[in-house]
Design goal:
alpha/beta; five-stranded mixed beta sheet; elongated
């Protein structure tokens, strides 16, 4: 096209220049849009990778490598990999071990003679011939169980003065017909120790004792028993607060469709439970064990415990399980070495514990030096999780890796984590408290929750009493029967 004037040429040039600018701006906008999309997709990918890693870690947790109950694992149980060393001895009875069987009693309740009437060979009568010897066997069995009915009879006598005199009934006999302490103890025992539901307990009493009982009567008996246990429960609490070493554990419990807290304190001779509605320091304060406790508290790494001025000891089993998780899921080679070190310390203490003598100072120094070398080598563990590719100037601290958290916790609380190394009277774990609290969880597996606060509190008080009586070598049923006779078992304070 031929341009006629200079002005037309300049206008055409400016129009072309504007078009180029517009095209460049459009290209620049598209480039920035693509960059933002790439950044967004990269961030999403990083978040997805972190989520996948988190879900993989969650899926890899089981009762073998974390503090997780086996009942939550379903039908596919993890492969067993015990930390215990395999013994050279075969399982079962060892050669030379004396066997045990039920011994015969000297005076059986009933004798059933089985006589020889005739000779098996010739048929001659032997009825009047005395035996040369008698071979004995005994059958131990239960007799038919039925209630025995005792009828107290109070005399009435009239005096010449016109007054009517009546003999007093025994204490506790208040109704025309009532159950005795044996039946009451059996009902409470089956519900609060064997954890039978109400209906099945009533059926059992009817089938075995011919004692049909309604669920309402059962509930009244169970509500009556805890009210008589104020003195024993108070003594149990005092005994634990005065002991040199106590173990602590905590769990949840559902009461009235809400999650309550269940702290437990245990020794070899006593057990104390509480059931506060809130968790954390408030639950420990309401329990009332730790505030006056001056001994050593064995527990897991739950921070509210460290708010008390008593000595502390950390359960040895928890870091061992976590180290298994670190080795399997995070592929940390040093985890196996640290597991071996902790197991060797535990074995050395177990070997010295029967003599109640502490480990020699030289051996303690060697074990401390070995632990320190492992902690120093663990400093090479990445301190933080991998940063996202497009983290930018995002505020806040980056999350630490699980191996790093475990290493720093063991290093910061090394004295508490290995408290059993310096004192053979200190256990290496808090398994006693975990076993005690497990019994408090069984009723929830049966009924799901406690429907009323009063029932939960009553069960908690009864379990304190029953568990302590069992540790004192008292039968659970006999201990409960003593409650209804007005003479409950009261444990004596013993700080040994």
């Amino acid at each position: 096209m031929r341009l006629r004037t200079r002005e037309e040429a300049q206008a055409l040039y400016r129009a072309g220049e504007a078009t180029v600018v517009r095209v460049l701006r459009e290209m620049d906008r598209r480039i920035h849009t693509r960059e933002r999309q790439v950044q967004d997709l990269t961030a999403r990918r990083d978040a997805s990778e972190q989520r996948v890693k988190h879900l993989e870690d969650q899926g890899a947790k089981n009762s073998r490598n974390r503090s997780k109950p086996p009942s939550t694992e379903g039908f596919q149980k993890p492969a067993s990999k015990s930390l215990r060393e395999k013994s050279a001895r075969p399982s079962g009875g060892q050669p030379g071990q004396a066997g045990q069987t039920r011994a015969m009693v000297g005076k059986p309740d009933r004798i059933e003679p089985h006589r020889v009437e005739r000779c098996e060979r010739c048929g001659r009568s032997l009825a009047h011939r005395p035996p040369e010897d008698i071979e004995k066997r005994q059958v131990h069995d239960l007799p038919p169980l039925r209630l025995t009915v005792t009828e107290p009879q109070a005399e009435l006598k009239f005096c010449a003065c016109g007054h009517t005199n009546k003999a007093a009934f025994p204490e506790g006999v208040n109704a025309p017909v009532q159950y005795g302490p044996g039946v009451k103890a059996a009902a409470v025992y089956l519900k609060n120790y064997q954890f039978l539901p109400y209906e099945r307990t009533c059926e059992w009493l009817g089938d075995f004792f011919g004692c049909p009982m309604s669920a309402g009567t059962r509930a009244n008996l169970i509500g009556e028993c805890p009210t008589r246990l104020e003195a024993p429960v108070r003594q149990i609490k005092e005994q634990i607060t005065q002991t040199p070493v106590a173990q602590f554990e905590e769990s949840g419990s559902r009461v009235e469709k809400k999650l309550w807290w269940l702290p437990a304190a245990s020794t070899a001779n006593a057990t104390y439970y509480d059931l506060p509605p809130k968790r954390g320091a408030e639950a420990l304060e309401e329990s009332g064990i730790l505030p006056p406790f001056a001994g050593r508290a064995m527990h897991d790494f739950w921070k509210p415990y460290f708010g008390y001025e008593c000595s502390h000891g950390l359960c040895h089993a928890h870091p061992l399980r976590e180290l298994i998780f670190v080795q399997e899921q995070h592929r940390q080679d040093g985890a196996d070495t640290m597991i071996d070190c902790l197991r060797d310390i535990q074995a050395a203490v177990a070997q010295a514990r029967p003599t109640a003598d502490p480990l020699p100072k030289a051996q303690i120094r060697n074990l401390e030096a070995r632990s320190q070398r492992l902690w120093d080598a663990g400093d090479a563990t990445p301190p933080l999780s991998a940063a996202p590719a497009q983290a930018g100037n995002k505020r806040g601290r980056r999350k630490k890796t699980k191996p790093r958290n475990l290493l720093e916790r063991l290093d910061e609380h090394r004295r508490e984590a290995l408290a059993f190394r310096y004192d053979c009277n200190v256990p290496c774990d808090n398994n006693l408290a975990e076993r005690d609290i497990r019994m408090m969880k069984v009723p929830q597996k049966i009924s799901g929750l406690f429907r009323r606060e009063e029932g939960a509190k009553a069960f908690c008080r009864l379990r304190r009493y029953i568990s302590t009586a069992r540790k004192k070598a008292r039968g659970a049923r006999d201990a409960i029967a003593r409650v209804f006779t007005g003479d409950p078992f009261v444990p004596r304070c013993n700080t040994s």
